[in-house]
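WARN retry 2 of 3 for item q-0093 after timeout on previous attempt; input resubmitted unchanged.
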Amino acid sequence: MIKIKGTGDSMLRCIIPEEMSASDMPSALDELRAKGQQLLHGAEVILDFGARPLDSGVVSSILSEFVWPSGVRIVAWITYDAASQDNLKRVGLPTSEPVQAKFSKSRGLKPALVLHRSLRSGQRVEHRGDVVISGHVNDGAEVLSSGHVVILGRLNGLVHAGYEGDEGASVIARSMEALQVRIGGKIGSLERNAQWWGKMVTVRVDEGSVLIDYWPALKAERIEDAV
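OK item q-0093 returned
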């Protein structure tokens, strides 16, 4: 069943379940359009497909059978499938979470994207703001953030914090298992036999160099244990 949620920023989020088959999607969208006609007309909508791959047939079907007849304006097509993101960008469709005006304008803060899932190989998250992932970032997955990145699971894949050039960004991982981390225009490398491998670490840029260290709390515990 397709769900609609308010975003708190005068937008609607349309969540299409990953397990829904492509053949069932048109009828489900048609039912949604019929039931929510007054709510949807003229609304700004985020289409959230989770990790579902999107081919040209599915995109065309959604446009012709839902977007155009309902009168909505799609502000983002969200999928964590990297190939689908590239294809959507190629035809000029937006794939990033929209920046919430109430944070970015009135308070000067970057809106954070919190993702309660793991990323598999071939999946990508790209966000103009901070990113927090409560699962793992597996080998072959990518996270691109204009701000900080926090990984509460294993970091095996590629993370690029401050990808718009912000070298004040940082990467925080509960288990560092990545050979490379990028911050702004800097690249940091890590060997598998390094002391940081598999540890809780923070990665940041200091005086032009990429530095890695234990989580401050963990570092404090080590000092206390040594005393």
